[in-house]
Amino acid sequence: MNELPVGRRVAQWRVRRNLTQQQFADRLGKSKSWVDKVERGVRRLERVSNLREIADALRIDLDVLLPEQPRRSAPARTDLERLRAALARYHLPAAAAPSDPARLRARLEYAEQSYRHARYPPLLAILPDLLDDARAADPGPAADALLVPVYGLVALVLVKLGRVELAWLAADRSIAVARSASDARLVAVASVPLVQALRSAGRWRSALEAALVAAGRVGDPGLRGALLAQAALAAAGRGDGPAARKLLDRAAQAGDGAAVEAAGVVAEAALGEVRAATVRHERLTTGDEWRWLPAEHRAAYLLDVARMHARAGDGLRAGRALLEAERTARGEVHDRPAARDLVAVVARSPAAPPGLTSLAAALRV
After folding, report:
1. What is the pLDDT of residues 227-263, one digit of tens each?
2. In a domain, 239, yes or no
3. Are 137 and 99 in contact (CB under 8 A)?
């Protein structure tokens, strides 16, 4: 029965319950013609609310009516445990041969590219070995320049997967390596994932202070702009609107315009200024610079926009933002627990767009 279309499943369960089409239609408050079209597949059931009404009338669980989805593969959980184990190792066995810095750099670039496209399962599979090999490299500035971003990438991925404490640990390790190297730029590179981990943990003040200290010491305008944008988001999380907007103005003078504008939308949403955030969002997504942001960045931002509309009770806009996020970077929606939870919430809205039913079914939420 798992392979049958939804309409056929409805028909089979109606027969099992000894109901005629007219009796079933009466239970639903629909016409017999409506039931007949549903069972023949002429009329598609695209809203979760309709499926839930039918399931209740048939006295079955909603999952029984949904198409069988492929089970999520176990390696992701296994790879996460491998990454946890790699972070827990304080002593590595001596390598038979020193790691080739050029090869390590190429592996890191591949991992960073995977992150920019939200390919989290394959990225999770390669990070444990990459971390071990970067730690085993011959000590020196070249090794530090590799290990800091590797630790930072581990932290960013763990934030995406909702493992905030582990993310904080990885980011702290990155900061420690950067400080021991006495390199202000490396400290700034390490501070970006640290601030994101602190923000994810709700440690707004610590995130704000870390971002401002690092921004004040780095000469790279792009890094300074990214840190000031992170500081603005931390200030908004604390409810400090004036500070957040001042920091955003400073970030705009130093950093990527589209990234700063996206941070501005998220900050306004955090401050409860939905109308202002919506206006900024529409201006951002119709501009030319929007498409230059990495797919992961755009999709993660769209999840924040969806969350804003969901909190405001606008299921239609929230659903559209979720669907656009999935089209932009599938992994950002399918592989992040927070995104799956958000889909489950928005799918309950009667105003949610039809496509969200299919997404909710695919995610089994």
Report:
1. 999 999 999 999 999 999 999 999 999 867 899 999 9
2. no
3. yes
